[in-house]
Amino acid sequence: MPLSIVLVEPEIPWNTGNIARSCAAGGAALHLVGRLGFSLSERRIKRAGMDYWDRVKPVQHADWESFEKSLPVGASLFGFTAEAPLGLWDAPLTPDSFLVFGSESTGLPAALREKLGGRLVSIPMPGGGRSLNLSTAAALALYEALRRADVNIRPSRLPAR
Questions:
Q1: What is the reported pTM?
Q2: Which residues share a beta bridge with 79?
């Protein structure tokens, strides 16, 4: 299984489109769980994801239970929330982890936070703040997991200087 970003009931098409682009660039899968606040056919989401959509092919799940049934045995799941005691730098992320994020307005539902328990992760914000933008948080977590997997990340198509 590749590394996966899991969005639970995302609301804003631009965030999901940006996350899809990050997944394509990072070689990660994208799972969309529950009710979406937009349609995947909307112009706004297609524009945010640019021409990366054919490389991502998001998997939609009707609800959390359907998503869970699709998981391999022993799947490594981590839920991201600002209130988690475990920081991103200390989380035992693996190259096949599922990085789970809640909606922009409410975050991970309480029942899901309870279910994930000790696998809740926060992203350090030394300057303070309530939260990060969803697409920013997903990109940070994705690239930290790639760094841990020692993926050789090389710039692509950058102009010569």
A1: 0.89
A2: 100, 120
